[in-house]
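User: I'll paste a sequence; please echo it back and then give the predicted structure.

Assistant: Echoing your sequence first, then the prediction.
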Amino acid sequence: MSEIKPGLERVAELLRRLGNPQKTLKFVHIAGTNGKGSTVAMLASILTEAGYRTGLFTSPYILSVAEMIAMDSIKISEARLAELREQMQGHISEMEDAPTEFEIMTALAMLYFAVENCDIVVLEVGMGGRLDATNVIDSPEVAVITAIGLDHMEFLGETVEQIAAEKAGIIKPGAICVSYPQDESVAEVIRRKCRETGVRSVFVNEAESEAVNSSLDGQEFNYSSLKNLNIQLLGEHQLLNAAVAIEATHALKSKGWRISEAALRAGLAKAKWPGRFEILRKNPVFVLDGGHNPQSVAAIVRTLKKYFPDRKITFLYGVLADKEYEAMTKILLSIAKKFVTITPNSPRALPAQELAAFIQGLGGKAMARESVERGVESALEAAGEDGIICALGSLYIIQDAQNAVLCREES
């Protein structure tokens, strides 16, 4: 699904041919650079706990496109996916301007959610917002903007303000906008879009979020008048992502959605999002995170320092060549014991040998491995029994790293 062709014309035509199923659905639409996945997971979990039939559309997938579509936390079956794809194929083949795979999956998701009578869909933007295929929908109930940073600059713009303007394209008349705390220049872009569309904006107040307890098993926190909330997701930034989910819940309630405090608490506590500071084992500690830009890597480093103060980390590290891996690596060097480099499962991957050479050029210790399995083995050896390993750099290492660690645990 690597082809990127921004624009709404193709997906709109495909949906017209399918009878515009999206027009029968209600949405929470979520854009941003970091934190989208965690936020959609928490929101979908809350809505499911509230008793709503909840659709979830996310991207990218790792192994199967079926991972992109779920309802009440259960992903679509391969058989159902194939059936819907077959149903759409005639319409796709008749189109002069062929839709991209992402546009096809977006339309397929809309069809699935409509047929299954979803009450509400939590819809994650693929890239950007304004011209993303998911923005084919009419006004969402709530437009959510998560943390914004530099990413996909070749498509979205060279400054955070330009990128913010693209992401703010999901804000439409009739919605309520809920945003993560942003830098002032980014916040002003969002506020301006809200003024233009007559939309009420709500920004999470960082001062109202208070950590209570934290361990490798989860976090307890207070937000505003809500006390002793619990989430499984780790890292201080996840407390703010949870606050975004809470404010989005409040916005939905103001529009008539019935969501009790008990459902809010249970939804937050049950939410999981694989590959977000996920602890795969504890002796040695093995952390897995799909962070793949400087902003997310900085958050990972802050979290590692919090849980493992004054410790050096063995990094299992694989990146895509078109990401800002130079800046990411410099952030990691401050707490790195050693890097074990691997090649992610993507045609855009930077070869492990090149990444190791780059790290060595910066004065870091690095060794390249030909597979994720060998990388995991070498990282465990380098860390020792009481060490700490963190695998990161790309979403495309998550599944292979999980499998490699699980296989070693079972053997």
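The two ends are 34 Å apart (CA to CA). The chain has a mean pLDDT of 94.
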